[in-house]
Structures are given as C-alpha cells and as structure tokens.
C-alpha cells in the first residue's frame, strides 16, 4: 500500500458526505451536501413515517416508479461533492475509493437500492465509480457496516477483536467484527441487528416482519408509539429529539417511550452478545444522542438478561467518531482490506 490517501464516500437518504482520508484514518478534507430528492410519496398522517437510513424495507416492497433523471441528479450531486473535496485536499493521487451506502444492495457488485433514495433502484454505483477512477480499487459496503468498521479501526472499538457496531437513527443497523475481521455472511448482509426480534407481538417492521428491534427503537418508531399513547397528539411532526427533550422534562409517556427503546436495545444486545461472545458494542446514530435516557434502561435490561460471565464482560459504549465514523470505515475498506474487505473481487 502506498502512502496515498483514499476517497471515502457516505451515501444516505438525507445527506451525501465525502472525505479524503489518510492511511492512518485522519481526515484531510471533508464536506457534505443534501441528497437531491423528488418529493417522497408519503402516506397520509406523514410525520416520521418512512423507514430507512439503515435497515428497513427491502426493494421489492412498494417499489416506486423508476426515475432515471432523478438517479442522474443524485449522481451529479455526488460527483460535484467528490470533486470539491478532492480539490480541497490539493488533488492528491489516490490509493482507492471506499463507499458506505444505505442498503439494500447486491454485493459486492454494489447495484444499490437505498430505501431512502427511491430514485436509485439497482443503480450501478460501483461500476460508475470504477469508470470514473480506472485502475483504482473501488469497494462499496452497507453504510452501517462502514460505521462499525470505522469504530473498530479508529473509534470506540479500537484494540478489541469482537465488536458489534450499531447505528440507531431513522433505522437500526449494524456491523459485526469477530476475531478482528468483518463478518460479511453469505450475501454481505451479516450484522443486521435491526431485524433481531425483540417482541414477537410487537409492531410491524418495514422488512415485512414483526417485532424487530428496528420497528421498536428507530426514531420514528419511538415517536409513533408515544403519539399512540397521547403524547403531542395535536402536533404535526414530533421527532425523536422532541421526545427525548420531553422525557428529560419528566413527561411520563415520553419517558416510557425512551425506556421502551432502551429495553429493546438491551434485549437485542444481550442476544447478540451471547451469540457472538462480544468484547465491545458501540452505539451511535441520532437516537443515541438521548444519552442516559436510552443507555440506562438499555444497561438495566442487558444486565437482567445477560447472565453468563462471558456475556457480562462486554462493554456497551457510545460511538467515538461521531458523524465521521462511516467515512473512516469506508476508507478502511481500502486501507485495511485484509480485515474488512472479504470478496476476492479486490478492484
Ligand atoms: P439518519 O437516520 O439520516 O442517519 P440520524 O442519525 O440523525 O439520521 O437519526 C435521525 C433520527 O434520530 C430521527 O428519528 C430523530 O428523531 C432521532 N433523533 C435525533 N436526535 C435525537 C435525540 N437527541 N434523541 C432521540 N432521538 C433523536
Ligand atoms: Zn425487520
């Protein structure tokens, strides 16, 4: 590996982010822009009702019509962002391109269909980037997996071999590192902690199942449950952040909603820890900003259910890299391929 930096890209339904990242994980230049989107076809009642970000509904459900112009508009915005970051860093020679993108996608070919980017359905992201960066390795993985990699390589999981990295935001996603290596599973989908079942009789999930962690603990799910119980019933669009604020102020329904999410996370983490004999679980994403409102019931529930000694040694911690962990993890697909990029298809 040369000392050249990598181009790192993070693609989500809300924002596109890009960075030039040094081989040691330091960020040389970094920028972001809103993901161009045609107005979504929201169900009546609106609010935070569409699943996505990480995890969520597979592309076969409620597939929106193809929007080729929309697809190219997003690609153009991405190219403009990437070119700006590249120029900001002084137009360096690159070691490769690493990308975290919202799922699902075919993998490792990375024809992507991010739930929150309806204009991209089967968009040939890896091929497009290869054409733009001929001769360079171009590697694309799930965005939550890249967050887990970033936290393992340079964040809160550093120095540990067995790490579950979680993102609790509009969706709930994750990535699994065991024995110091990313676990891809048969189709690149290992680590989908958001669809571990925490309540068989729980709410329907965007994946088509019921009672998944994501259905209970994603930000919009929390807010929806609280509204059903009468919280801010008269307002249009209360968010997870509003809920956390009210819970802190002592609103009983808001506090119960946060406890419910924390408990669901604690159950899922207890199961994952028993299954995988984890050292560290990192928890990030917008909902994790609720802090002790989430982490206290999470830890209590974990302690109730994770009774074996080997499970009790796990440390459950907030992410350390904040907004940049996905970019740092995407760069690690280039710089630390032996740990984080399993496919034989290295270019
Ligand atoms: P994305 O899903 O686009 O990656 P975020 O990671 O910011 O975005 O997550 C957004 C979700 O987190 C929303 O549902 C929002 O209501 C929720 N959220 C943001 N801040 C907080 C907070 N302080 N407490 C609880 N939920 C929050
Ligand atoms: Zn599910």
Provide the descriptors you would attach to this structure in a database record:
binds adenosine-5'-diphosphate; 2 domains; 11 helices; globular; 5-stranded mixed β-sheet; Nucleotidyltransferase, domain 5; binds zinc ion; alpha/beta; ROK; 347 residues
Give a written overview of the molecule.
Helix content is 35%, strand content 17%. The protein is α/β, with parallel strands linked by helices. It has two domains: 6-142 and 324-340, ATPase, nucleotide binding domain (Nucleotidyltransferase, domain 5, 2-Layer Sandwich), CATH 3.30.420.40; 156-320, Nucleotidyltransferase, domain 5 (2-Layer Sandwich). The strands form three sheets. The chain has a five-stranded mixed beta sheet, sandwiched between helices. Helix 7 crosses helix 8. It is globular. The protein binds adenosine-5'-diphosphate and zinc ion. Zinc ion is lined by residues 195, 205, 207, 209, 212, 214.
* Total number of helices: 11
Number of strands: 12
Largest sheet: 5 strands, mixed
What share of residues are in beta strands? 15-25%
| CATH fold label of the largest domain | Nucleotidyltransferase, domain 5
Whole-angstrom Rg: 19 Å
The average pLDDT score comes to 91
H/E order of the elements?
EEEHEEEHEHEEEHHHHEHHEHH
The CATH class of the largest domain, by name, is: Alpha Beta
How far the N terminus sits from the C terminus, by CA atoms, comes to 14 Å
Which structural category fits the helices and strands? Answer: alpha/beta
Indicate the low-confidence ranges by residue numbers: 40-65
Placed side by side, the strands forming the largest sheet appear as: 3-2-1-4-7
What is the fourth-level CATH superfamily of the largest domain?
ATPase, nucleotide binding domain
Which descriptor suits the 3D outline? globular
Protein name: ROK family protein
Organism: Actinomadura vinacea
Family: Belongs to the ROK (NagC/XylR) family.
């Amino acid at each position: 590996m040369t000392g050249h930096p990598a181009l790192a890209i993070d693609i989500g339904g809300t924002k596109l982010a890009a960075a030039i990242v040094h081989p040691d994980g330091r960020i040389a230049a970094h920028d972001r822009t809103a993901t161009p989107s045609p107005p979504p076809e929201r169900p009546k009642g609106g609010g935070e009702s569409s699943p996505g970000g990480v995890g969520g509904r597979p592309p076969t459900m409620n597939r929106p019509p193809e929007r080729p112009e929309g697809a190219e508009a997003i690609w153009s915005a991405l190219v403009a962002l990437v070119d700006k970051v590249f120029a900001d860093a002084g137009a360096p020679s690159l070691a490769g391109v690493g990308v975290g993108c919202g799922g699902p996608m075919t993998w490792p070919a990375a024809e992507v269909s991010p739930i929150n980017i309806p204009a991209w359905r089967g968009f040939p992201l890896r091929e497009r980037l290869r054409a733009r960066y001929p001769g360079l390795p171009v590697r694309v993985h799930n965005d939550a997996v890249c967050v887990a990699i970033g936290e393992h390589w340079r964040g809160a999981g550093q120095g540990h071999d067995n790490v579950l990295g979680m993102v609790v935001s509009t969706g709930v996603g994750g990535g699994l590192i065991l024995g110091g290596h990313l676990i891809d599973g048969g189709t690149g989908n290992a680590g989908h902690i958001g669809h571990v079942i925490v309540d068989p009789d729980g709410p329907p999930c965007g994946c088509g199942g019921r009672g998944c962690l994501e259905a209970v603990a994603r930000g919009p799910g929390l807010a929806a449950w609280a509204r059903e119980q009468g919280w801010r019933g008269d307002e249009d669009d209360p968010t997870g952040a509003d809920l956390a604020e009210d819970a802190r102020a002592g609103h009983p329904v808001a506090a119960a909603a946060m406890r419910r999410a924390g408990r669901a996370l604690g159950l899922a983490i207890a199961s994952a820890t028993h299954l995988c004999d984890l050292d560290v679980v990192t928890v990030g994403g917008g909902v994790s900003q609720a802090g002790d409102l989430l982490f206290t019931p999470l830890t209590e529930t974990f302690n109730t259910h994770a009774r074996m000694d080997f499970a009790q040694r796990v440390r459950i911690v907030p992410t350390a890299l904040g907004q940049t962990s996905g970019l740092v993890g995407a760069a690690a697909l280039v710089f630390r391929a032996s740990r984080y990029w399993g496919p034989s298809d290295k270019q």
